[in-house]
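Worked example 4.2. Below are the chains of a multi-component assembly; read each line carefully before continuing.
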Amino acid sequence: MTKYFFLAAAVGVWGLGVAAYGATLKVGDTASDLSFVARQAFTTPAGKMVSPGDAVRISDFEGSVVLLEWFAVWCPFCVAAVPQVDQHIAKYYGTRGGNPQGVPAVHVAVNQEARSFYQTSTDAFVARHGFSMAVNDYDGSSVNRRRFKFQNSGQPIFVVISALTNSSTHKPYEILVNHLGYGDTDFVQELSGFRARIDQVKPAAAAVQPAVLSGPLRRPDGTFEFKIEATAGRAYRVETSTDLMQWQSLAVVQGSGSAQLFHDPSSSVERRYYRVTAEP
Amino acid sequence: MLSHLAHEIEYEPFTAFDFLGYAAEVKQEQWAGQGGLRHAWAERWTASATAGVYEAFTDYRSMWLATYYRQQFEFVPGYEEPNPRGKNGQASVRWEYWPAAGFLEARFAYANDRIAPGWEMDALTGALHRGREQLHTYAPGLALEHVWTRRVRTLNEFSLANTSGREVRYGYRGSVNAALGERWVLRGQGGYTHEEPRLRAWYAGASLDFELTPKWLIGTQARYYKDTGEIENSFLISTAGPGLETWQAGMSLRYVGERASFQFTVAPLRADYEPVPVGTRPFTNLYQDRTWILAQASMAVTF
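Applying the procedure described above to all two chains together yields the following structure tokens:
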């Protein structure tokens, strides 16, 4: 029994190894059918307004990365984890407007304790820590349901899901993190690892608009200029031809989102065609 | 012998790991009784027996832990208030192999302690689990005292203690008394305790007494103690204390009359704990480094 204690204390997990419910979801799996019950009123980053008791689905967080943190108010490890998650995830991304790709990353506190005599203290817990989005992992018919998709037992549980359906880097509702427990490692370092995965999430590249050419003008010295309006941040290749059959590359320019002047100093020929195409 | 003990602690939860706890003043009074018999059935053989009972907590640590569990679970169905109490007894046989100058004593002690159990929530079912509540301790021991010279005497004690749910604890204590002169007495003590898998504890101390007059003595003491931490328990949130190191030094004044004696001692104690592991973090405030001021007054009357 003593060995059991050392293992468990090192992991810092309440109730580790109690019972197995079967296979759980892993990092890289998808979790598109998650739903909870709102504990308080809030608006998701996708703009959905929920009231207490409403169903909250992971799809309601479309366009964001979501950190789900399961807690019970009587679990000391959960109590200890909350301020660190707040500082290193919620506030971290809140002050930066999301990850480096501009994807919002939000924290959702998931209460797993359903018994009535714990609800007052759970409300106080939510209020003290200023959770902006708190949900319950139970409804009227069952308790503690969703967390068993990720871990067989124990808490706190931390799950990060990319709720982007158009990401260029991750599948819709792909699980980025599935972590059980507090204290097995330096938890701040653990949260740094969470952030590294959150920061990798990129939205799908914006659709590339065809370049628009305008303002053709032959200068007095015989050279030629025109304007190119192209998608900002994308590279475009400028080519020229005299017969529309053979094309010769002139330059690669970066789109700016507005018309920019392009000058061809070699265009002293009488007739020449130009085309501008987006680089792959 | 009847004894009375009053405790009063200012309980402060470690809020970083404890949301449900709250500050409280906790008071307790304890009564204990002890009695003994001795019978010399042969010229060099003496048998003795003692027995005792007590109720309520025996130390502030138990009170602190019970307060923690009460605040965590008092509103949870299944929780019960602790009702600590205990009884103990010891029998011994002494053989004076050298009358008034040496003896060998065999002892056997038994203690039955009903302690305040730990409580823990099952994360899967939500059921409240109660920890061990009854402890039985069986402790045989052997003591050997020998007077080596007119001025030097030693006492060596060996003991085993087998307590419910734990490995056997082995202990040794040794002391030496040396009369340095007609009015000076030096006492030295040391001890070692070993329990698998990881408890090791040892201490050493010395005291020096000076006889001011035939009835008044003044003394000074110092003691050092170190252990590797308690071994406990079956819960994930463990109450086991981390490694502890203490230093104590003090002064005492003693009066020894024909029918009455008393002693007054002041002995500050410094206690330094190792950092608590994460599984013990809710008890951080219990295992804080502290400096104690210990003052003790005792009196005995013969009638």
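Take a moment to check your reading of the output against the notes. The helical segments of chain A are 2-11, 76-96, 119-129, 187-199. Chain A has two domains: 2-199, 212-278.
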